[in-house]
Amino acid sequence: MKSFEEILDFAIDNEQKAHDLYMDIAEMATRPGMRQTFLEFAAQEMQHRERLEAIKAGKLPELDQARVETLGLSEHLVDVPVEKDMDYQSALLFAMKAEQRAYDLYAGLAKATDDPNLVTLFEGLAQEELKHKLHFEREYDDVVLGDN
Amino acid sequence: MTEQTALERRVQLWFGPQHPGITGNMAVQAWLEGDTLTSGVTHVGYLHRGFEKLMERRKFIQSFPIVCRICVPEPDTNEWLLAASIEELSGLDKEVPEKARWIRTLFLEMSRLSSMLMVLGGHVGAMGLGTAPNWLITLRDYILDRFEELTGARVYHMYVTYGGVRRDLPEGFAERLEANLQEIESKLPLVDNVIFDSAVFRKRAIGVGVVPEEWVDELGLTGPIVRAMGIARDTRTDYPYEKYGELDIEPMTTTGSDIFARAWMRRLEIAQSIDLIRQILAKMPTEGPYSAKLPNMLTWTIPAGETYVRAEASRGEMGYYVVTDGSDKIRRVHVRGPSYVHGVTLLERLMPGTNIADLSALMVSLQVCPPEIER
Amino acid sequence: MSLKYTIAPFSAWLQAVSKPFTVPVTGGPRPGAPRYRGWHINDVEKCIGCGTCSAICQNEAIDMVPVDDPVVGDSGLRPKIDYGRCCWCALCVDVCPSGSLGMSNEYVWADTDADVFRYIPGVDEKPWDDSELGWRREEGFELVDHDRVPMGMLDPDERTQTWAEVVIGYTEEQARVEASRCVDCGLCVAACPAHMHIPDYIGAIRDGDDARAVQIIYDNNAMPEMCGKVCTRRCESVCSIGVQGDPLAIRWLKRYATERFDNLAEVLQPQVERVGEGRTVAVIGGGPSGLTVAYYLAIRGFEVTVHEALPQVGGATFFGIPRYRFPMSSLEKQVDLLKSAGVKFVLNHRVDGDELTRMLAENDAVFMGVGLMKPMALRAPGEDLPGVIPALDMLREQNLGHEVDVGEKVVVVGGGNVAIDASRISRRLGAEVTIAYRRRVVDMPADDEEIEDAEAEGVEIVTQAIPLRVEATEDGKLDFVWGPAEMVQEEEGKRPRPKLIEGVENHLVVDRVIVAIGQGPDLDWLPTEISEKICNKWGYIEVDETGMTAVEGLYAGGDLVNDTADAISAIADGLRAVNGIVDKTRAQHV
Ligand SMILES: Cc1cc2nc3c(=O)[nH]c(=O)nc-3n(C[C@H](O)[C@H](O)[C@H](O)COP(=O)(O)OP(=O)(O)OC[C@H]3O[C@@H](n4cnc5c(N)ncnc54)[C@H](O)[C@@H]3O)c2cc1C
Ligand code: SF4
Ligand code: SF4
């Protein structure tokens, strides 16, 4: 992975994969409302993909480098397997963990390279994933942990 | 040419309701032979208010803005009587704080003082002498300044409420009031010169408008009118209320029972009032609440009952007879103002034989306040 | 006459050269005294539009006029003063419950147009708007009663020894005094989800007509004794007297009125049009929403059958809320009224998907109010250890009269009503109780009074505690491991969120970990054709303004529809469906 373009393509592909996964889960979801939930998640991934494409085409400014503070909600919670009877709580947990993994990936890549331009790009992508995670964390905090 | 009959010589004259010499919204229909009244009839009906009836339609608290209108120069007796009567019927009287009782006594005495300053000016004003009234109205205004800072208004104070008063004395109030009293005292000798030492006033007041002693109990006369006959009657000492029982106070009297005696009576009582205010300020506690805790004034109901409470206004005994029926409103209130007997019954008796030029002075000396008649 | 009297008056001429009596005023009108009662001012942000000023004005000088859209706790109206009527008595100022209304010390204002002397202080700009001086509300002089009649309660020590009701209830005398504090502003009516006619029934209690009060209460609440005991009382939070004093004890007054009568049917005798004659309605779930639908439809002639999975109706108020707050006798009394209105009950019967489909075909309407039956899981490691139990299960067992053993020491995770109930029950079962909550006490969704009561009963509350995991100890106990949190305020207008402070672990060794972090809908049994139409992404049901779902004839309400999840909201949802069903029936008559 060398060029700016190549890296963005890689990231775009990642979003696409996430989208496809959510579409698959939506297809098999049995619980009331859960199909909708996963379709919505998939649509969000699509938006992320489009955003990266816009950046690649030079239509949007560079990625925001500001550090995102998450709530650290998912780290201590158990992993959730993909199942057809996932409920909303599991779905959020799954999504939080997926965004965290994506962050870990970009953060790792940023460490592994010396090219300052690429470091900036990877770090920007990493922060982007944290933003997505925070979105799910807030939802989890409001909906699942309403009484806690 | 035939001789004119007595009847034909008689002239009928309306004195008021729009006459500067009349004391407020009323009229006297007078019959004259020459310039002497053969008889006179009083007329009221120019006020169109119906205070007593209005109160039957209002919650207890809402009557305060009404009762003060019953007497412009001295509204405060009305406020106090309404408060005292309802407090007695509701049992709230037991909760009126000590300090509130002192403030109320002060307030009532300030009210008497300001009213007497005004009416003393009226005595000579009614004879066409302008200097003293201008001065005395100014002296009264000094007291109104104090009312303004105490109650938020100069004339209609709406300051006494059930359970106490509406606000505490402002910081430094006593000192400012004392300064006013000294100012008033320093000016009174000047006032004396132009009233009691004036040949005009003496000639027109001495021996004029004499009220015979026999009428006192027959008509129910009170206040300066009877004290000016030498009878020591005063509600403040005869039936002490609020803190009057704890003050050093003797009823003032003079003799003569004419317009001059009544004016002099007021002059004496102005001095008495100043003395009482000083006593009150000295004895009054500075700490403590100024009001009891009140129930919700929008829903307050009080037990059925009736009572009569009285107080010494500058004009005489003022009383409220109040009936309640257990609801949130007064069932019936009768306002017993001294002006009814003084301004109707007594005045009509005194008019025959009075010179038309003295009628104004006579009415002022009886201190007639028409809203008390037409409640 | 002596010469003196002719000469003395001329001394007045000396005044020509002496200090005058009058006080010269220069530079415009003399300012009014510091507490002068001049033109009104109003802090319209503070004003709640309660109209108490208008109510006390004996000159009817105040009109309440709309200036804003009403929001809960604010009518959107503001006082407009007519100075053709005002007598500057300032009773309006002294009574103002919010303390927003005042008077400036300005008194001079002339204009040729008489209409300008009617204005809305604080809205129509005036030169004296910022006046520091003038008449203001003063603490220590209140025309309304700020002090609530205190409610008698069992002694905290005594409480944990018994299942008896903690709250004793008002006596007649106490209720009358408390009721007389109401100023009839009606802000509470807007705040109540069911829009109960609160000032009206409080007025009836004040006037000693308790039967009338109960009739008014039953206008739009068929479980008022329950609400009188456990309601979340949104009404009280907007009570205008509560701005500066204690809000009216609306809940306790409702409780008082309903407790006065043993036989409600005798008192009520509702006079309503029996539009539902010959029609049938099935209600699934006997919670507050379902019972509301059942009662109001039954008195209108509908034949209503309630299907309930448990052996008793009442929903969460039966299986969740503990008896010391809402005793069985109270519930039974309310259910008896429903029976006397002709409602039929099928108990111990769980409706499934096929039956629902059948019901839709066989009835004129079906109402679903099956509540939130699925407890949220911690999803922390160790949750599946024996001894980690959902609070809902524990409360249900207790309320069904089964033996519940919580051991000697428990930790309850959560800060809602369920958590508080679980801890107070545990106290009564003899355990030492700690509540571990992720946020602060102020953030707890539980009722403040409940929190206080729990603390008085010896429940310890640990805040900003994030559960990390549960481990089994060697001696068969559970080690509840938690980490401290800091509160971070991320979004404007939202409550701050807890964020784990990494690296610190605290241990609490207990016999039970009771999980009360929230509950969600459990609608897996719905046929997919139906759930696809009516459920949203959170798994809740959506309804229109008539209470109907996207499936014709299927109505829903209660916790699985609204986002406030309390009894009165469930009742309000029930009322909405009643109106929907009645209106539809009426339309069909035409
Ligand atoms: C422990 C606890 C304490 C609470 N404290 C308060 C409080 O203090 N104040 C307050 O206002 N609110 C409180 N609430 C909330 C309040 O009780 C609920 O908001 C209210 O009961 C919701 O009513 P509902 O009509 O939605 O149904 P629910 O009360 O939830 O009842 C639903 C009913 O449907 C039945 N059911 C479910 N599925 C089926 C089926 N398939 N077939 C047949 N029957 C079925 C259930 O058994 C249950 O009886 C508390 C709740 C709990 C759990
Ligand atoms: S009483 Fe006070 S808070 Fe209520 S409407 Fe009037 S000004 Fe506003
Ligand atoms: S000051 Fe008195 S008269 Fe004027 S609006 Fe207020 S309550 Fe009414």
Describe the overall structure.
The complex is a heterotrimer of chains A (148), B (375) and C (590). With 148 residues, chain A is an all-alpha fold. Chain A has one domain: Ferritin, core subunit, four-helix bundle (Ferritin, Up-down Bundle), CATH 1.20.1260. Chain A has four helices and no strands. In chain A, helix 1 (4-28) runs antiparallel to helix 2 and helix 3 (88-112) runs antiparallel to helix 4. The termini of chain A are far apart. By secondary structure, chain B is an alpha+beta fold. Chain B is built from 15 helices and eight strands. In chain B, the strands form three sheets. Chain B has a three-stranded antiparallel sheet. The model of chain B has no long low-confidence stretch (mean pLDDT 94). Chain C is 29% helix and 15% strand. Chain C is built from 21 helices and 21 strands. In chain C, strands 8-7-6-9-21 form a five-stranded parallel sheet, sandwiched between helices. Chain C has a five-stranded parallel sheet with strand order 11-19-12-13-14. In chain C, strand 6 (280-284), helix 13 and strand 7 (303-307) form a beta-alpha-beta unit. Chain C starts with a helix and ends with a helix. Chains in contact: A-C, B-C. Chains B and C meet through helix 3, helix 6, helix 7 and helix 8 of B and helix 1, helix 2 and helix 3 of C. Flavin-adenine dinucleotide (FAD) is lined by residues 230-232, 284-290, 307-310, 315-317, 320-321, 350-351, 369-371, 373, 395, 417-418, 421, 558-559, 565-568, 570 of chain C.
